[in-house]
Design a protein that fits this description.
The chain is mainly α and about 120 residues long. The protein has 4 helices and 2 strands. Strands 1-2 form a two-stranded antiparallel ribbon.
């Protein structure tokens, strides 16, 4: 992840790139920026307890996608051994939580379990 100084430097570099990209379509964009705040990864860890500063609690690698992530009832070959417990978080299939799919899937799984 790098030191805090390196994260600050890279955050500023990336912010400059974003501003430059937007300026390609809106040339006056850099001049109308009143204030710019860049939050490096460590600030998300400090402010929200996000492991490593990643709000999705870790990068998703291919071995952690699709069928390799648990669904609302666990994995297909390893279901949750507690009746009535359903997973619903960014770590569940359908995440990250920005999409709300984990909660939706959990809701459907719960309805199916209780009402057939």
């Amino acid at each position: 992840m790098g030191s805090r100084e390196e994260q600050n430097r890279l955050g500023d570099v990336m912010a400059d790139r974003v501003v430059a990209r937007i300026a390609q379509m809106a040339p006056n964009f850099p001049e109308i920026i009143d204030r710019r705040v860049v939050y490096p990864s460590y600030t998300f860890e400090l402010m929200f307890g996000a492991t490593g500063g990643d709000f999705c609690h870790g990068l998703l690698h291919p071995d952690l996608m699709g069928p390799f992530r648990p669904g609302p009832r666990g994995w297909l070959d390893l279901p949750i051994p507690v009746d009535g417990l359903f997973l619903s978080s960014t770590g569940c299939h359908g995440g990250p939580g920005v999409t709300f799919h984990p909660r939706l899937q959990r809701g459907f799984a719960a309805l199916d379990a209780f009402h057939g």
